[in-house]
Design a protein that fits this description.
By secondary structure, the protein is an alpha+beta fold. It has a domain of about 30 residues. It has a two-stranded antiparallel sheet. The chain is elongated and about 55 Å long.
Length: about 55
């Protein structure tokens, strides 16, 4: 096996070992319209889970 094939097999094995992801923080809406005359927009997030969630922007 060449080194690229070994790397691909190793990556596939590493990715198959992860657990299931659970989404508890929900973004309301699928698109953000950013008006050209505004410096910022407000996006509503809600935590539907029972534990606190961390969001990075």
């Amino acid at each position: 096996m060449n080194k690229y094939m070994r790397a691909a097999v190793a990556a596939a094995m590493a990715l198959s070992l992860h657990g299931a992801a659970l989404a508890s923080v929900i973004i309301n809406g699928t698109r953000v319209v950013f008006p050209s005359n505004e410096k910022e927009v407000t996006i509503r997030l809600s935590n539907e889970g029972t534990q606190p969630g961390l969001v990075q922007v």
